[in-house]
Amino acid sequence: MRWPPVNRAPSRRDLAVFGAGLWLLAALLAVLSWLRGASPLGVVLAAGIPGTLALAFAVAPPARKPLFVGVSTLFYPVGLVVTGALLALLYFLLVTPAGLLRRLTGKDPLRLRRPAPGTSLWTQAANPPDPERYFRQF
Question: Are 54 and 74 in contact (CB under 8 A)?
Answer without folding.
Answer: no
